[in-house]
From TrEMBL:
Heme binds at C405. Belongs to the cytochrome P450 family. The lineage of its organism: Eukaryota, Fungi, Dikarya, Ascomycota, Pezizomycotina. GO terms for molecular function: heme binding; iron ion binding; monooxygenase activity; oxidoreductase activity, acting on paired donors, with incorporation or reduction of molecular oxygen. This is Pisatin demethylase cytochrome P450. Its cofactor is heme. It comes from the Eukaryota. Keywords: Heme, Iron, Metal-binding, Monooxygenase, Oxidoreductase.
Length: 466
């Protein structure tokens, strides 16, 4: 069991283990651990709206794509964003990701030469923030350049996570707490999400004032293949459909990228590295795949997304690490619609809050087998087609159904390009001796299950491409 997980995850695991598939963890709130429940709650056509807990993830009284509790409005809005986030559209951003992986590798090289240990969780977040900045505004925000929290936005995000997670339990407090936090305590810039929103608006204003004055290196080097940023795409959509895709939609889209686009990817990258370092046999197997792909010319110096798709063990490791450590660690709460619903053999009337915690689902032995609690990437390669399809249906690091993560392809692009490259070029060793039977990996759960101070020592590999 991981140390330091938030009380809700612990409570859910512990009690589910002891008391069966339905756990009441608050008034009218139930966490479900039953292989049939996912389809009922999140399945196609299910009309289970998000619970009031989500209201604190946006400004009081206004919708955001992530927090919207209105099923119909959410579906309408989501359709308008969908294309921009599709995999086919995201492939064009590979040069942006390469630009950041180059810089990330440079930084790791410097740090390895300095012989310092490194908080890899933080460096992965610097990487993810710069990628999302480039994709959103065609501008690297400078996290990798400076190696620090630019504009204090990472700490503002941490503040937002704590606020939204805790105030969300008493959502009627949100308008008051939001006022106190931002108007009385937060100064001119506000705190938490309000601060991140100001940061977002500044980036948007800078882009609007001088879109051409902030090229990334990619645009300088490959001036014929200028990649259109999300912001530019949002603006074009607004120009052609000003009535339905408003200025507010542009703001919500950019803010969502800032809020959801860095922590989650960084957590997932950290989990992948942690599980590999604490399972040397898996690391060795993946290294062999990476090295031989590189030597056979099947993996470029800057690995492409397409190349990474032909590396089965890499794909299995990513899936398995995200199964063991999904970035969100609370039940994905939904409200039972009119007519009620029978879940795990029990009838829940309309208005009951029910949800599945991906940490619980991912350790269900009826789905993932008797060793569900063990990191074993081979499960994704050895399973027969029925077993594989069962596991895939219940693999939910990105959520499930109509509210599934809209940004997942961005993350997968970043992860699948970065992991083979750093494994090829660097050696990593966890600074504290690690006992994988206890799984010592300190985390903090405020919706995102964030690793804290994951210190790693770096070395350059002989295999390194540079
Ligand atoms: C490995 C990385 C990521 C993980 C594990 C992750 C996880 C999730 C999960 C579990 C949900 C569903 C939450 C729920 O049902 O309550 C979600 C929704 C969402 N994610 Fe992600 N996410 C990741 C990356 C991103 C990125 C890069 C972006 C944006 C650039 C993003 C934007 C969103 C948005 C806007 C939603 C709400 C979608 C909706 O309600 O329609 N995520 N994410």
């Amino acid at each position: 069991m991981f140390l330091g997980l938030g009380w809700l995850v612990f409570l859910t695991f512990g009690i589910v283990g002891l008391y069966g598939p339905i756990v009441r963890y608050g008034p009218n709130r139930y966490s479900i651990n039953d292989p049939h429940a996912a389809k009922t709650i999140y399945g196609l056509g299910a009309q289970f709206a998000k619970s009031s807990w989500y209201s604190t993830w946006g400004p009081p009284g206004r919708w955001t794509i992530f927090a919207d509790q209105n099923v119909h409005r959410h579906a309408q809005n989501r359709r308008m964003y969908q294309n921009t986030y599709s995999m086919s559209s995201l492939i064009s951003y590979e040069p942006y990701v390469d630009e950041c992986t180059d810089l990330f590798s440079d930084r790791l090289r410097e740090l390895s030469q300095a012989g310092q240990s490194v908080d890899m969780g933080r460096w992965f977040q610097n990487y993810a923030f710069d990628v999302i900045g480039l994709i959103t505004y065609s501008r690297r925000l400078g996290f990798l350049d400076q190696g620090e929290d630019i504009g204090g936005v990472i700490s503002a995000l941490e503040n937002h996570l704590t606020y939204a997670t805790l105030v969300g339990i008493f959502p009627w407090l949100h308008p008051i707490c939001h006022f106190v936090q931002n108007r009385l305590l937060g100064g001119e810039r506000g705190k938490g999400r309000e601060y991140v929103l100001k940061f977002t608006l500044e980036q948007m204003a800078a882009f609007k004032a001088a879109p051409k004055s902030m090229p990334s290196n990619v645009e300088i080097e490959q001036s014929e293949t200028v990649v259109e940023s999300f912001l530019s795409k949002f603006q074009s959509k607004h120009s052609s459909e000003p009535g339905s895709f408003t200025q507010y939609h542009i703001q919500v889209g950019c803010a969502a990228n800032m809020v959801a686009g860095s922590d989650t990817t960084a957590i997932s990258l950290t989990a992948i590295l942690y599980y590999l370092l604490s399972h040397p046999a898996s690391l060795e197997k993946l290294r062999k795949e990476v090295d031989s792909s590189f030597q056979d010319g099947k993996l470029s110096t800057k690995p492409t997304f397409k190349e990474s798709q032909s590396m089965p063990y890499l794909q299995a490791v990513i899936k398995e690490a995200l199964r063991m450590h999904p970035a969100t660690g609370l039940p994905l709460e939904r409200v039972v619609p009119p007519g009620g619903a029978t879940i795990a053999g029990r009838f829940f009337p309309e208005g009951t809050v029910v949800g599945i915690n991906s940490w619980v689902e991912h350790r269900n032995t009826h789905i993932f087998g008797p060793d569900a609690g063990t990191f074993r990437p081979e499960r994704w390669l050895d399973a027969d087609s029925d077993q594989l399809s069962l596991m895939n249906r219940h693999w939910m690091p990105f959520g499930l159904g109509s509210r599934t993560c809209i940004g997942r392809h961005i993350s997968m692009l970043e992860i699948t390009k970065l992991v083979p490259r750093i494994l090829r070029d660097f050696d990593f060793a966890i600074v504290e001796p690690i006992d994988s039977s206890k799984g010592i990996f300190n985390t903090h759960n405020m919706w995102f299950v964030k690793p804290s101070d994951f210190q790693v020592r770096l070395g350059l590999r002989a295999q390194s491409s540079q």
